């Protein structure tokens, strides 16, 4: 009697499980299905039918929605970062002009060569041009201009600050020593400020950010 009750019990459980699965997927178990054996007691197998067609639809929908959400979040973050950068740039248009640059590598210099400082750390007003080493004054005012140049091993280094075509204060270094100049200048918009090597042969400037050029408007 117990044997028949057990068989009937598992048969009933199997029917109920299949019916529940069919009902939860839209009362349709005729789609593509896979049989997964769960139990095999008293030679009465308990089999679950899974609707893989609907499962694929669910997975596809989930993947698409997840990708769309991730893409929207990424675009939103990029947009916010871009707007933040734009706002920072717009804010800086009202700041006083200032620049600071240093030289990354050592170089042998020719006579009357304008020194270039290729690593730009700050360039408010975009007055400094790294490829030429020239600071073009963006507005009238009183400026502080600074320069430090380091010579290479066993070499001299003679330089001067220039405004347009006029030589100003100078600096000198020898054998890894530095020459430094600091001056205050009344400048007009469009003036060209730069550091020029003097008329000497066989001189070099040391890089590694030991040589620098900077300036800023104070009033």
Automatic annotation (TrEMBL):
InterPro entries: C1q_dom, Cerebellin_Synaptic_Org, Tumour_necrosis_fac-like_dom. The keyword Signal applies. It is found in: Secreted. Residues 1-26 form the signal peptide. Keywords: Secreted, Signal. Its main location: secreted. This is C1q domain-containing protein. Coiled coil: none annotated.
């Amino acid at each position: 009697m117990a044997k028949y009750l057990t068989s009937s019990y598992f048969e009933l459980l199997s029917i109920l499980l299949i019916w529940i699965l069919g009902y939860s997927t839209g009362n349709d178990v005729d789609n593509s299905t896979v049989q997964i054996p769960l139990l095999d007691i008293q030679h009465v197998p308990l089999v679950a039918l899974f609707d893989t067609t609907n499962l694929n639809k669910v997975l596809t929908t989930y993947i698409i929605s997840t990708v769309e959400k991730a893409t929207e979040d990424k675009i939103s973050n990029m947009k916010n970062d871009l707007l933040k950068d734009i706002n920072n740039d717009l804010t800086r248009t009202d700041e006083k002009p200032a620049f600071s640059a240093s030289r990354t590598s050592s170089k042998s210099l020719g006579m009357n060569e304008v020194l270039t400082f290729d690593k730009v750390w700050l360039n408010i007003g975009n007055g400094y041009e790294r490829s030429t080493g020239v600071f073009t004054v963006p507005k009238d005012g009183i400026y502080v201009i600074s320069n430090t140049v380091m010579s290479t091993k066993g070499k001299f280094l003679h330089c001067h600050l220039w405004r347009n075509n006029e030589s100003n204060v100078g600096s000198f270094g020898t054998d890894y020593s530095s020459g430094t100049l600091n001056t205050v200048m009344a400048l007009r918009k469009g003036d060209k400020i730069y550091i020029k090597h003097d008329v000497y042969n066989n001189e070099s400037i040391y890089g590694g950010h030991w040589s620098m050029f900077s300036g800023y408007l104070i009033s």
